[in-house]
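Section 3.1: Structural characterization of target chains.
Under the original work plan, the team committed to producing a structural model for every single-chain target entering the pipeline before any wet-lab resources were allocated. The record below documents one such target. The sequence was received from the expression subgroup and is listed exactly as submitted; it comprises 529 residues.
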Amino acid sequence: MLVGYTLPAHNLNLFQARRASFRCRGSPLNPLTKRPASAKPLQRIASTELTRLHLSNLEKLLQKQEQPPVLEPIEKNSRNELPENKGSGILEGLGLARLWPEMKATEEMSPRHMKTLQRLLSKSQEYSPRNSLGSRWREYHGSNDWSGMLDPLDENLRREVVRYGEFVQAAYQSFNSDPAMSAEAPPLPHHVALSDRAYRVTKSLYATSSVGLPDWVDEVAPDLGWMTQRSSWIGYVAVCEDRREIARMGRRDIVIALRGTATCLEWAENMRAFPVQFPGDKDDSVQDPAMVECGFLSLYKTRGAHVPSLAESVIQEIRRLTEIYKGETLSITVTGHSLGAALALLVADELSTCDFEVPPLAVFSFGGPRVGNKGFADRIKQNNVKVLRIVNSQDVITRVPGMFVSEELERKIRNTKMGGVLNVLDKMPWSYSHVGTELRVDTKHSPYLKPNADVACCHDLEAYLHLVDGFLASNCPFRENAKRSLLKLVHEQSSNVKKLYISKAFSLKLSLERERDRMPMSPCLPSPS
């Protein structure tokens, strides 16, 4: 061993003396090390003191190398309040969120939450329990305007609202699968895959858009009628025929489901926002006549080249069904989204004034715009039509036409000195008013959606059903045991879902495209029953 050549001369003798007595000894701190019985207590004490000295020096060395933490400026919100600290746990204290930004949601990504996310992203649907409504079905159908059932939200009412929303989704899916309609011949039967197999479709409904062109255009090009008038499949009528479901609901239910805007001419009709009176309802003695938006009324009343108007089709079918099931306990539920929500009010209004006996009427509308003035809202109420409006606070469509303010702000203004001004504006011919009882949800309450989700996401029907399924009360967080699958929401609104859940979905190997491709194609969707 030539180590001696590299040592100073005055240390060489010392090293050689120690080398002769060198032994392979275990650490005095290791409890498994066997010590000889002849070991002196003084040497044990000396080694312990030496260990303490080493630890003390090591601690001083680490303290010298530790850099002071860099304090970042804390931004306050508009209310001059400190932001809420959402991080928690040891990992957050270690500052690993800087290395891995997703670490700030460690609580949401705990094993329990990962299991919940995997269940919600699976292709197998889970549904909230469908309890028997029995003798209380009139309450759930709005006989008391859903008093005491909305905040907190009754679990049975939540399931009913989601169920009626799925009828509208079936209308969207049916139209998107076959949007074309010949202008030369009557339409062929339209197939609808209902999610609830207890119902059977009995009638297809069509709406005709009719946007008039200036007279000089008709003179120059009289063959442009196909550009200004077009009929499109817009919904259906279905009736419950399953005895077990009829017993569960306490009555035989007739559903009228209407989709939202889907064609260019329908968008043009939406833009015709000036109010008009109902045909044949021009009584000058009425102080506040009912008026509705021109475009909505045009879609509802206009006949097509080969199809009747939406109004005629609905009245004819409801008359036929009430005759078939005469003597049974019946109900009529009209449901729609966006444009379909507006048309649902017109359908319910006309059914309530029919010359034959009509069962109890209720409307479940999702993201619907304002349809008419205060006179129209009073008319709906006087005709005993029950309306439940499901509204997303971030959805701008629910604030038009009329004053572009939310219902919450309008209520606050009415309770102030400025309320008299709004009362005067209500009597103006161009003022609009909402109808019925409101169930308000909010995109910002969802733990899965971005708080700054875009307009399309806030108006999306699947987002509405997701928010309703997770809603408990206005002062409660999102429901932890929400049942509705996130698969469709993530697939259609991936840019508005938090990146954390998108990345975790792929890390769980739940590729949405492959899941969708592997889904079995069947004539009917899985039944929630």
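Residues 69 and 95 are 11 Å apart (CA to CA).
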